[in-house]
Every structure is written in C-alpha cells, then in structure tokens.
Design brief:
By secondary structure, the protein is mostly helical. The protein is built from 5 helices and no strands. Helix content is 72%, strand content 0%. The two termini are 29 Å apart. Bound molecules: fe (ii) ion (FE2) (2 copies).
C-alpha cells in the first residue's frame, strides 16, 4: 500500500513514496551512466524520454509565444509550427506508452513481483496521461480548425502546460522504477 500521507496521483504527487522507493531495485540515478549495461535499453529509454520532455516543452513554449504575439485574423506560421510539434509529441507518447503497456510492464511484473505496486502506479499514470494527450489533441484540432480565436489558443496552451507537468512527473518516476531493471537484467 502507498503511504496514506503521500498522494500517488500523477497530477499532484511530487515524488514516489518512501514505501515504494524501498520496493525498487537499488541503483542510484547518479550511477546509471557508469553501469556496464547502460548502453542498451537503459540509454534508449532515457533518450526517448528526453525526446518526450523536449517535445512537451516545445509545445507549451510555442503556444505561449503564439499567445503573446497573437493577432486576430492574421495567418500565424508560429501557430502552425506549434500544432505540428504537438501532433508529433502526441504520436510519440502514444506509441511509447503502447509498447510499455503491451510488452515491457507485463514482463517486468512477471520477473519482479515485488515491483507490482510501482507498476500499478505507472499503469495508472498511463491512463491519466492518455486522457491528457487526448484533451491536448482535441484542443489542437480546434486551434487548427478555428485558429483565429485567441480563446482556443489559450485553451490549447493550458492543456499543453498541464500535459508538460504530467509528462515530466511520470518520466522521472518511471525512470526510477525501470532503469534499474534494465541495468540489473542486462
Ligand atoms: Fe517510458
Ligand atoms: Fe510510461
């Protein structure tokens, strides 16, 4: 069970609970890059996570800039770029979660039963993230269809800002759970 004092919800937690941390394979983050197995799946996942972090930052920053420079009725190439960035992010994130859900997480559950609670948390994160990705996609659809409305750009920005927070929290915590697995199971 999670520490009742520690809210495990992705939108509000600030870290994994101490109970959950104590159930993980031990491998401190600052030692990962010097581990013999680092060059395989561990570094691949970290690089893909970095891509998702960069994409969510670029989407939020792009929409923030669009809002600052918004001129009603004017074609806005910056907005087109932000929408394109958002589409790439949504596709990459859905693709990544689908592989984790279908392949990696079930295999980890089987090989490391003591990680069940941590993997339950990550599964739940994926459900929350899936909804946030869909909401962001809907907002981008509306911007693309009626981009001359400042309120729609503001809505897309709000969704992108929320999504960036969720993605960063999830990836930080997921790495603490799964990177030690890759390093131990090489
Ligand atoms: Fe991941
Ligand atoms: Fe994930």
């Amino acid at each position: 069970m999670d520490d009742p004092k520690h809210d495990p919800h992705l939108a509000t937690r600030t870290s994994l609970s101490q109970d959950m941390r104590s159930s993980l394979l031990h491998c401190p983050r600052d030692s990962w890059a010097s581990q013999p197995g680092y060059g395989g799946k561990a570094s691949f996942f970290l690089e893909y996570h970095a891509l998702l972090r960069r994409g969510s930052l670029a989407l939020r920053a792009g929409l923030e800039s669009c809002l600052g420079n918004f001129q009603p009725g004017h074609p806005n190439a910056e907005l087109d770029d932000a929408v394109r960035t958002g589409r790439q992010l949504l596709q990459a994130a859905h693709h990544h979660h689908a592989i984790e859900d279908a392949s990696y997480f079930p295999a980890f559950r089987q090989a490391f039963p003591k990680l069940g609670s941590a993997l339950d948390l990550l599964d739940n994160d994926h459900r929350i993230l899936g909804a946030a990705l869909d909401e962001t996609g809907d907002a981008l659809d509306r911007v693309q269809a009626q981009g001359e409305q400042r309120g729609l750009v503001a809505l897309a920005y709000d969704r992108a800002r929320a999504l960036e927070h969720l993605i960063n929290r999830h990836l930080d915590d997921e790495e603490d759970v799964i990177i030690p697995i890759f390093l131990h199971a090489r």
